[in-house]
Protein 1
Amino acid sequence: MATTVGCGDAPVLREHGQREVFCGLTGIIWLHRKIQDAFFLVVGSRTCAHLIQSAAGVMIFAEPRFATAIMEERDLAGLADMNDELDRVVDRLLERRPDIRMLFLVGSCPSEVIKLDLARAASRLSQRHMPQVRVLNYSGSGIETTFTQGEDACLAALVPCLPAAGPLDPPSLLVVGALADVVEDQLRRIFEALGITRVDFLPPRCSSALPPVGPDTRILLAQPFLGETGRALEKRGARRLDAPFPLGAEGTTLWLKAAADSFDVPTARFESVIRPGRDRAERALAPFKARLSGRRIFFFPDSQLEIPLARFLARELGMQPIEVGTPYLHRQHLAQELALLPASVRLSEGQHVENQLDRCRAATPDLVVCGLGLANPLEADGMTTKWSIELLFTPIQGFEQAGDLAELFDRPLARRTRLVA
Ligand code: SF4
């Protein structure tokens, strides 16, 4: 693996201006699959309903676990009592869907504009429907947010509901951030083999399995966009383990090592447990490295995964990140990632989309990672793009997924080559 000086102290270009990002409602698409007895009720407009439906694809055969309580014009004009209407909608929903155990009321731009107090509504509805259904709320609004913040807000809303760990409970590891079930199962097997016996995941697959938290809980973030959730857990006494994120062979090794060190796993045991997975990941990456090495890549700020991805692509596949934009730069959570990034990378935080488009065009990268809204115009300009949102919908963490992660970046370049040939 290449050695680098790192980007820990590198200057950051801070930009303010027009942004091209999805809103936090988007998180519902992967969260509703994860917590299998939860339901997400967006309190929003037809635009919100449309966004969710088109992002999720319309599920004709399955009973979806999300819906939108649409606020009509008279609601927005304050002509109707929204709280009464909301109570009626929730009653009807819970009567029809007795399988729901946790209901999230998800705020949107319209509900925030009319200052509908969803926290109060959630507490009122919880009192009415507990113990069968717990009602929580969070904001998915697109005002000043980016799409992965929806998950952060959702998980932060769950933190006060987590039971307190007892004084006699053994130290536990809490992996925080929604992961595909297949990834979660693989990681659980590795932790077990390492001898770390008490491991929980947040969000859990089932709302009745909320993990306990307390001063003996060590948290390992699986996603880089969980600033608010991390803070809420630390307030409950948990301690965050500093680590890069589990992307690629190196990232996964260092992430697991942070947990192993915290639980005093001997180095020899750690090595013997992780070696087979790491070797498989390195073998899976080799053909992609041959194709991607030296290719130049430009990141627009969108998912907040940009910095860990750039680190993986630079160090494990030999790609050259030119600019790595991120909506927010959480220096503490990303400290180890920044230290591993090549020093030549230009870091930018926030967005002034016109300026960034100018820099991108001037840099003529081989591949641009960006949101859906920018991809088509950039493709029309002859650039090759990768939609950043795909990185949230695809299992990419851990050793077994390293090859799939590399392929996500190889595919658009291969397609472009076929089109040109
Ligand atoms: S929450 Fe705001 S940004 Fe998101 S779909 Fe609704 S109106 Fe649009």
Protein 2
Amino acid sequence: MSLQTFGRTKMTIIEKLSVEHGVFLKLLDYLEKLKGDRSFLDVTGLKHVIFVIANVVEKHAEHEEKFLFPKLRSYIGPELNRIQAVEFEHGEIRKILAVIKKNNDLRAVRLEAAKLITFLRDHIAKEESVLFPVAEQCLNPEHLQVPCKSGA
Ligand SMILES: [Fe+2]
Ligand SMILES: [Fe+2]
């Protein structure tokens, strides 16, 4: 996230999404410790933590899909495959969560949680290093403003 955020009255959508990424990475660190703790045997508790994280990640993904990707798609034709790749990953993350939701076996939930952590970290890194810089280059400042009704 750009330090230029400070001293301004509005964040851009990219800055908002980047701040959220930072929070998700901290939450994933917590989840990684919890799922690796062999004395923690509460599968319901582990699933609860996963879905607290999943709920905020889902809102973030919907925001990207609704406000960022469509704008990007219309501006960066040749880079379309990059958007398709991250959209595909949103689907993969949702699939992992669906498996966790149906599962009550601690070992299986730990394994899926490990997949989720790896997948989400990789996804965030890809958006931060590839997609967001492209968005900042291609979209004009007006398109990057956080929408008024985003709840931000
Ligand atoms: Fe995403
Ligand atoms: Fe994201």
